[in-house]
Amino acid sequence: MTQSATQEQDEAVAGDDRIQVHCGDAYDLMATLESESIDLLITSPPYWGLRSYGQDHNEDILKQWLAEDSARVQTDVPPYEWYRDHGGVLGLEPLPEWYISHLVEILQRGAAALKPGGSMWINIGDTYFARWSSIRHDGRQGLGDNPRSRRRTPMGGFRQEKQLLLIPSRFAIAMQDLRWILRNDLIWHKPNIPPRPEKDRLRLAHEHFFHFVKRPKEGRAKYFYDIDQVERGARDVVYYDFDEIEQVEGDETEISYYDYQEVEDGAYDVVKTHARSGSDGHSATFPIDLITPRILSSCPPGGTVLDPFCGTGRSLSVAAANGRKAIGFELHKPFHEAATKNASEAAGQLSFDLGDDVTEMGA
Q1: pLDDT at position 39, please?
Q2: Residue ranges of the DNA methylase N-4/N-6 domain (predicted)?
Q3: Is 71 exposed, middle or buried (0-12, 13-18, 19+ CB in 10 A)?
Q4: Three-class secondary structure of residue 142 per DSSP
């Protein structure tokens, strides 16, 4: 059911041009963005193998891909355009390797639009492998009576029964391979996860929120970051006792960074916040208290926030309510309509602080 931006591209603009919501595939819409126009890309893309969001997917797509060339193997990943044109939906790839490659490919399309001092925050969850998996049409795993379908996933390599697939880690490494600098792997601890039937493992109660910045041609990455806006206790601040190490013949004198005197109380990169009920038919919306510190710390006042998988527009509304401009992409029409409505409501609450006070962190 996927359509390219050339086939259909609806746009809603709320509050003049300060909030824009576009209906279409992020792969296409990324290419329409103006170069170096985005301060922050923040999103939670569809996770692999969990839900379809009501979209039709070609379950024979792996067979079709292999049939085109006898030399191909399952882990040879087709380009996203081929996958989409043959009825594939992001998140429903037959193999996690395909999903990771396609997600990276889509995000990379937006690299030119991100400012040199911009940031990218990507929320992504993990999953366990099962040869026969259950795909919900909507709704969280383990909750509700939402209809579901069964599908078979080929085993091989790390794809083994009961295996935690480490999809977030594999995604992060794939991004690093494309020159992105990973600054934080923030852990979102969800204390209210629903019960699961398994009796031979701990419950999966966290998701990853990766912070990427651009790798410069030379030197260390520098980017906007206002650490005063992050959660209390989440600042990784250490006060060091700088001692010179005894000089070794032939070596220059070094400075010791190991004998610290004090660490800020409660410093950590784990954020505890409850998973919230969905809105407007979307079951996996961002918690406001999870994304607000990301937006305030990584996008300057008056800057532009992009969510290429915006769902019902939670990130857009939060950005707008905090004096940032916002752009959202959404493929699913009902979610796009909800995001448009929510953006229009948020636009009436805009209060811009266009100060030019910019904080850069080079550490």
Answers
A1: 98
A2: 38-340
A3: exposed
A4: coil
At the top level of CATH, the class of 10-233+269-361 is alpha beta
Q: Which residue has the tokens 């969850």?
A: 125
Q: How far is residue 69's CA from residue 355's CA, in Å, rounded to a whole number?
A: 57
Q: Where, residue-wise, is CATH 3.40.50.150 in the chain?
A: 10-233+269-361
Q: Are strands 180-189 and 148-152 parallel, antiparallel or unpaired?
A: unpaired
The per-residue pLDDT for 121 is 98
Contact status, residue 41 vs residue 119, Cβ threshold 8 Å:
yes
Low-confidence ranges of the chain (pLDDT < 70): 1-16, 136-148, 233-267, 276-284, 347-363
Contact status, residue 40 vs residue 303, Cβ threshold 8 Å: yes
pLDDT of res. 206: 94
DSSP calls for 269-304? SEEE-PPPP-BTTBS-PPPHHHHHHHHHHHS-TT-E
AA letter at 162: K
Q: Which parts of 37-76 are beta strand (E)?
A: 38-43
Strands lying side by side in the sheet with 270-272: 10-14, 19-23, 325-330, 304-307, 38-43, 114-124, 206-214, 180-189, 270-272
Report the first-to-last Cα separation within the chain, whole angstroms.
45
Q: Please check whether residue 167 is in contact with residue 103, taking contact to mean a CB–CB distance below 8 angstroms.
A: no
pLDDT at 263: 57
* pLDDT of amino acid 335: 86
According to DSSP, residue 227 is labeled G
Name 172's Cβ contacts closer than 8 Å, sequence gap at least 6.
182, 185, 208, 210
- What pLDDT score does 186 carry? 95
